[in-house]
Design brief:
- InterPro entries: PcG_RING_finger, RAWUL, Znf_RING, Znf_RING/FYVE/PHD, Znf_RING_CS.
- The chain is α+β, with helices and mostly antiparallel strands.
- The chain has 8 helices and 7 strands.
- Helix 4 crosses helix 5.
Length: about 230
């Protein structure tokens, strides 16, 4: 089979953010037109606009942030195509948290450790037998499963019922991972209230209905930005 090499600059237009002109970081796609940008760039842009930065189509008249979503596939492609980009981004994030005197979230710690181990093994020219590798992978996975995301950045939230058709939760204050999504909360509430379907529920913050794919970290950043 014939193969053809493609230079990185030939596909840069497909893996860069049109707002900052840099490689996509935390790639986020507009569901209306499927154009992709860095999440931080897009969120900042949508604070003053409700249209796509590329094609100018109206995302939503009043709540455009509910119609964007994390594009994990695109981000994986970018990290695979651009050498050293993922390691550099992890380093920047660690330095950012250290500068603010905050603990590095668990997901960044994990990525940093795995990236460092990967680089060290290549530098030393060492390769481990498949048996040992599979054993270590299994042990790491078991350790992660038992962690229940406790090492993640945590968010404390209050779930209050404002509907006369539903009873409130006995314990309305909960603390969970910042990586949890609104959909996770809907499933949690439905289970606690013995509802037949979580689709019957809507979760609001500041009188706005939250998108089911939004993480709690995203909600904190976009809905609580100006709160003391």
């Amino acid at each position: 089979m014939m193969t053809r090499k493609i230079k990185l600059w030939d596909i840069n237009v497909h893996i860069t953010c049109h707002l900052c002109n840099g490689y996509l970081i935390d790639a986020t796609t507009v569901t209306e037109c499927l154009h992709t940008f860095c999440r931080s760039c897009l969120v900042k842009y949508l604070e003053e606009n409700n249209t796509c930065p590329t094609c100018r189509i109206v995302i939503h008249q009043s709540h455009p942030l509910q119609y964007i979503g994390h594009d994990r596939t695109m981000q994986d492609i970018v990290y695979k195509l651009v050498p050293g980009l993922q390691e550099a981004e992890i380093k920047k994030q660690r330095e950012f948290y250290y500068k603010l005197g905050m603990e590095v979230p668990g997901d960044i710690k994990g990525e940093t450790c795995s990236a460092k181990q990967h680089l060290d093994s290549h530098r030393n020219g060492e390769t481990k037998p498949d048996e040992n590798s599979n054993k270590e992978t299994s042990e790491e996975k078991q350790e992660e499963d038992n962690d229940y995301h406790r090492s993640d950045e945590q968010v404390s939230i209050c779930l209050e019922c404002n509907s006369s058709k539903l009873r409130g939760l006995k314990r309305k204050w909960i603390r969970c991972s910042a990586q949890a999504t609104v959909l996770h909360l809907k499933k949690f509430i439905a289970k606690k209230l013995n509802l037949s379907s979580f689709n019957e529920l809507d979760i609001l913050c500041n009188e706005e209905i939250l998108g089911k794919d939004h993480t709690l970290k995203f909600v904190v950043v976009t809905r609580w930005r100006f709160k003391v």
